[in-house]
Amino acid sequence: MKQPRSSFARQWRWPIVIAVLTVFGLLSALIGQGGVWWWLSWAALAAPLLVVARYWPLRQLFERKTRA
Asked: Please, is 18 exposed, middle or buried when counting C-beta atoms within 10 Å of its C-beta (0-12, 13-18, 19+)?
C-alpha cells in the first residue's frame, strides 16, 4: 500500500530542486575550467529565470482576481 505524501514534501519539492540547480550552476561557474562547465552553469542559472518567466503572468492574473 502506498503511503500518502507529506504536505512538506509536496510544498517544498520544487523550491528545493531550483535551489540545488542554482547552487550547482554557481559552483560549476566558479570551479569549472571552461568548456562544458560554463555551458552547464549557464543552463543551470537560466532555469530559475525560465520558471519566473513562465509563472509571472499567472501571478498577475491571480492578483487581478483577488482585487476584484
From this structure: middle
Q: Measured between alpha carbons, how far is 23 from 20 in angstroms, rounded to an integer?
A: 5
Per-residue pLDDT of the chain (68 residues; tens, 9 = 90+): 566 668 888 899 999 999 999 999 999 999 998 899 999 999 999 999 999 999 888 887 777 777 76
| Residue 8 identity (one-letter amino acid) | F
The overall pTM is greater than 0.70: yes
Contact (Cβ atoms closer than 8 angstroms) between residue 21 and residue 40: no
